[in-house]
């Protein structure tokens, strides 16, 4: 079952001083443990109690090429891991030769629980027990690896800080910004064994190249220089280092850096921002043909960037011409003297200045306020066709009626009796005329015929009134007024009396009353909004289509009627006669004009000023 234990243990002991990153350590450790135990499959899971939702997470796994299907599920693995943390060791025997064992591992971090879960085909029980003991002996390898890395990191930091101090001494020897940048670039190229190092400084939102290692001067418009500046701007905008080859877990944008590597035929590039007071102001980019940058080199580059920021910023400021330094000094003086002394006076002064600027220079769209009423293009007044009595009515205000629908029924019983009387008289006069003709009494015959025609005309009038007793809607519409007909059943009505008023709700428009003080501001093509008194929170768009040229008097005011069309489909609840307020847009005006134009108009008219 077991391979050469001594070689496996030796490999595990070597991992105590493993120099690579954790993402490479854990797979190597899982493989060595799997070989040591002779397991067919092994996984390492970790639980961090510092997480918001701690749970077991797989961080490494290894399986033999001929490994069978897993013996336990992930849920059973978590349960086995919990047992191992509590009991120190846990196992599940599926058969005499198939076992799953779980053993805690030491990571050196108090908040971490780490467990190894291995599936082992047991051939020799004594060898199986021995391998478990060996695994327990190397369970502290992750903790040793962590301590070793911390020690190496400390040693690297000490060395980096020492070399950074030497670098600062080199920079401080220069009194000008450009020579200091060149010295820094040369030193970085030497320390990082780079093909060349470039240093760029932010100016006006762009990065301008200030120095290239081993180059006293360069043409700023060269295509190569522009590519380097684009890569530096990519790092500056993201305010983070950009490293190529790209780490597997990186999400940074590296398009310009990749183009730079391709054009220069290089293998690795590292761009690190230089910050002043937490704000990135510069970038140095290191390029080389050889191997990729290590984690220690990236950390060293960050330390150098932090330490050289202040000296380089000071040299850059002092190297500028007098006018630029004076402007910066004024800005710094103003900022430093903006303190808490007399804060309310300063705040009031600034507020007053802002208010004055807004009043005289701020412009918004001025809108004329005007009341409106909703009308319809087509209405119908339904009067009483004759003197009579109301017999039946089923409509109410707001009802929608179809064309030809019965609106009101008047009592026609008296008319029907009158009709019968006229019909009887017509028959009688017809008989008298025939009798007179037979007796050759032609004068009497003509009298009888005239009386018959008179009754025939009366009969037709009566029939017309009977037909008119049933009042119908002339078109599809909505009942706007019905004179409380349902409460007046049996009541008399006079011919011509208004009984019902109908309106078409699909042909509505706004009639707006514009004050004569604002009529000169309004044009017929103006846009605006309106809101109903019943629903003031909702605003609807409109457009003027006509302004009457003649003024009208209304409530002791002189107004002009304007007609507006809806710029949106009418709502179902809109009805003729509804009122509200319209706001007509007349163009941009300053706040000062909006506030004072009424007063100015008064002075013009009353005092005849200006």
Structural account:
The chain is an alpha+beta fold. 42% of the residues lie in helices and 29% in strands. Helix 5 packs parallel to helix 9. The mean pLDDT is 84.
Comma- or semicolon-separated keywords:
single chain; 610 residues; alpha+beta; 6-stranded antiparallel barrel; 29% strand
Please report the number of helical segments.
14
> Which regions are unreliable across 5 or more consecutive residues at pLDDT < 50?
none
Largest sheet: number of strands, sense, barrel closure: 6 strands, antiparallel, barrel
The percent range for strand residues is 25-35%
The value of Rg in angstroms is 50 Å
Q: What is the topology?
A:
Layout: H1 5-14, H2 22-37, E1 39-48, E2 57-63, H3 74-87, E3 90-93, E4 98-105, E5 112-121, H4 125-137, H5 141-172, H6 177-191, E6 196-203, E7 206-212, H7 223-238, E8 242-244, H8 255-264, E9 268-276, E10 279-288, H9 295-318, H10 322-336, H11 343-361, E11 363-376, E12 379-383, E13 388-393, E14 400-401, E15 406-410, H12 413-438, H13 442-468, E16 470-472, E17 477-481, E18 492-493, E19 498-503, E20 508-515, E21 527-532, E22 535-547, E23 552-554, E24 557-566, E25 579-590, H14 591-607
